[in-house]
Design a protein that fits this description.
alpha+beta, 9-stranded mixed beta sheet, 8-stranded antiparallel beta sheet, 17 strands, binds 4'-deoxy-4'-aminopyridoxal-5'-phosphate
Length: 306
């Protein structure tokens, strides 16, 4: 399988894509990234890059937070992503990882006057959480980083130390995924997922002020719930104890899809089985991300390899 990367403004075999040991971002986490699904439709022999422009819009916003300036427009980034995918021989679902970072060999701790670069790689889509069986979760002893520490609305490399600490703690304690609370003890999100509760037939999810990443799957789910199921979403502060009394609960994310949460802190969520709204959303989402639904053509960037 020929594997390629884009680095320093050129495509190259993945094995040649190397960065130096003095690269500033390696030392201080001064980069930002995104994660994009390329869904392979075997019947139509084409990829659907799902909400590609929205992912790059978010990455360019993260760049603004970090004072990273790239010589590419959103359209340029979309085009070079497709070119990268075209060079590889994947005919299966893929995960595209673009990353913008402080690339100078300079160990000064600052954002200004440090050169930037952009790289992108394509890999197969990891199975992150078991969406069929559902997951067991716990509230983490690690709190979510606050906006005034490292802004979580940016998908900033260094922020993922917070996620990794919580994920490892959860897994080493026998759970699949962690739920992080804010400094004030309200529900924020998972380590790489947003979270939704179903209470009284409505979806409830924490708003942007709760130190979440504004997930693209989160936005997709809110729209699909309204359009296809007639279920509305309330964005509001969520108490920890609401997790224990919710009828249903699930995580959303590009790599995690819609992952039902069946247990939180050793208490069953609802019946302890995948709930009806979660199951309906999983079905609708799986169909829409393949790129075949004309109602959502704005979300699709279709590409048929030779
Ligand atoms: N929160 C965090 C911290 C994440 O890393 C992710 C994954 N990108 C998400 C939420 C979900 O975002 P999206 O649906 O855009 O993948």
């Amino acid at each position: 399988m020929p594997a390629y990367a884009f680095l320093r403004n050129q495509f190259m075999p993945l094995a040649d894509a190397k960065i130096g040991v003095l690269t500033q971002a390696l030392h201080y986490g001064t980069g930002c990234f995104d994660g994009i699904r390329g869904n392979w439709d075997s019947e139509k022999s084409r990829f659907c890059l799902f909400r590609l422009k929205d992912h790059y819009k978010r990455m360019l916003e993260s760049c603004r937070i970090l004072k990273i300036s790239l010589p590419y427009s959103n359209d340029d980034l979309c085009r070079l992503t497709v070119e990268l995918l075209a060079k590889s021989a994947y005919r299966e679902d893929v995960y595209i990882r673009p990353l913008a970072y402080k690339s100078a060999a300079n160990l000064a701790i600052r954002l200004h006057d440090i050169e930037d670069d952009f790289l992108a790689v394509v890999t197969t889509l990891p199975t992150y959480l078991d969406t069929e069986k559902g997951v067991r979760s716990c509230v983490s002893s690690w709190h979510r980083v606050d906006d005034n520490m490292i802004p979580p609305r940016g998908k900033i490399c260094g922020l993922y130390v917070n996620s990794a600490l919580a994920k490892t703690e959860a897994m080493e304690n026998g759970f699949d995924e962690a739920i992080l609370l804010t400094q004030s003890g309200h529900v924020s999100e998972g380590t790489g997922q947003n979270i939704f509760l179903v209470l009284g037939g409505e979806l409830i999810t924490p708003p942007s002020s709760e130190n979440i990443l504004m997930g693209i799957t989160r936005d997709t789910v809110m729209k699909l719930a309204a359009d296809k199921l007639g279920v509305s979403t309330v964005e509001r502060q969520v108490d920890r104890s609401e997790l224990y009394v919710a009828d249903e609960c699930f995580f959303t994310g590009t790599a995690s899809d819609i992952a039902p949460i069946l247990e939180i802190d050793r208490r069953p969520v609802g019946t302890g089985k995948i709930g009806p709204i979660t199951a309906d959303l999983q079905r609708v989402y799986a169909e829409v991300i393949l790129g075949r639904n004309a109602d959502y053509s704005d979300w699709y960037y279709l590409f048929s390899p030779e």
